[in-house]
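Support request, please re-run this one:
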Amino acid sequence: MRWLLPHPALSAMLLIVWLLLANSLTVGGLLLGAVLALVLPKFTQPFWPARPRMRFGRTFVAYLAIVLWDVVVANFQVAWLILFRRNRDLRSRWLVVPIDLATPEAITILAGTISLTPGTVSADVSADGRHLLVHALDVGDPAAEVTRIKTRYEARLRRVFA
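Re-run finished. Output below.
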């Protein structure tokens, strides 16, 4: 079965994204999406020599739940900052987060998670892949924020990519 679906998660994601972009559920759209979901991963397989091992079970679902919760909470926090804080009272900071993740895919997911959460954005990854530069909108204690990122997201991602 691996020869047909070299990257099953990528195939599923491509099919879902295709259907969302088509904005209608038709037989033709479903068939074209299925063909793309089968052909594109097969075509790109030589560029993925070592596929990362991911746990899609409870660990991944728990990570997604934490991220979704943090996105909702951060939306309210940023709205409060915008509505009730003056610009000069914001404590925006650049944070350098040391990364213990080994695979580029895990680092990309960490950077994407940070950027998805309102009030923070990942700006750069160091050339050696050991540090992530993050801009935070309002931070009282930069060291505590780095620790929060590492314990809340990175530690969970290490378990997902174990």
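The mean pLDDT is 89. The longest strand covers residues 93-98.
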